[in-house]
Predict the 3D structure of the following.
Amino acid sequence: MTINTKMLWAGACSSVARGQQLQAQLQGTLYADEREDPSALPFAALVTGVSDDPVTLASHADRGLYLVCERLIKPGQATLFGLFPMFAKAGLSHAQADAHWRDQHAPLALVHHAFMTEYRQLSVVATVSGTPYDGFALCGFNSLDDLRERFFSEPDSRDVISADIAKFADTRRSPRRLLAIPRRLEH
């Protein structure tokens, strides 16, 4: 499996409006969870892009600023993403958890998430500010029904994926999934 990678900034914002401000700075992609009450979420928006001005980025990214390696596992288009912030499993280093996520989990995800139209892994290389996540999974689908009702392909897919995630991620510490609509301004 060939994986395209690139280094990006990822900024987490407490509101979609802050995310839009950050997106204007990065000219990148805004992943916005537009629920009316985002207070139960770890952040309301995640923005990815390229910049040589982390100080300005940090002023907009009030929930965290991260240097990430974006891995495009499954190229495609999605109208909605399940955005999963992730902490590594206790006892594993970031490198160990990340290697499993990339080398073992990614191929499994492609098999067991047949309706997933796009898949990106954002592996955190450095945390500038905010919660020290190990990564962000972006699982793209064409509809909310596909994400909610057809996230798993086969009857045993949920068990296979859950067992594998437990090998590299701390599912108790990792916050709840965001339902993120992408808005791209890539240059």
Notes: The longest strand covers residues 118-130.
